Amino acid sequence: MRLADILILLSLAAIWGASFLFMRVSAPDFGPVPLVAFRMTVAGLALTPVFLRKEARDLFKAHWWQLLVSGVVGSAISFILLSWASLTLSAGFTSLMNSSVPIFSAIIAAVWLGERLLASQFVGLGLGILGVLILVWGKLEFHDDGRGWPIVACVISCLCYGFGASWMKSKLQGVRPLVASSGSLLGAGLVLIPFALTRLPEKSPPLSSWLSAAALALICTALAFVLFFKLIQRSGATVATSVTFLIPFFGIFWGWLVLDEIVSAQMIAGLAVTLLGTGLITGMIGKRKATS
Question: What global pTM score does this model have?
């Protein structure tokens, strides 16, 4: 792996890890729905130069409703749930919960698309679920100030991401990644705008929240997608997918560095088990041998 690709990988992990910090800062002042509407619309607009090519416009016209479903379910609902959870949960903990996305993606792909799981992947699913249980053990309080419902929101968010991955594989195979990203982001952002207008904050958010929201849209979404697909082109999907292992480390680091969040032994244990499961599911750990 070339040095330039390693730098892209680390930059991408740092950027996506920082998204949980930016949500933690901006969600309380904007509110989850206005924040996500801003994030998706601005990110979608930033990626619209891809539509300067007629081929991209034709792909969008042919697949507009599939892109809209992808954007609303796979991104908008996920972002809203994570932003709402960020009102209660720390940035580091939210990033740890989000690291289980490959686990839920594998389950949905197996059930929906009939993808065959290898023996090592079944073990990975079990470890991944165990890792999530370690993370949430003793935290599922469902009273008014409890962390139970925010944790449930994180799990549903992971399921939405998993649905989005299978939906794109099933319905959007022939659509270029940046066309799919821009179209789905912009479409879902426009759908959210009317709902956001009814939930605007009573007073304008402070500058720190505006900067965090702008960073979420332009850096953690638009730029991150460009880097991700560039990494796929340069090094392949396997290398690009390995960013999953690095994101929670950066999520914890940014929360600790900027917000003085506490990193507990329970978080580290849950992270280790979850990532081991993710490694087995993605085939990055263990021998890929088909089940009989």
Answer: 0.90
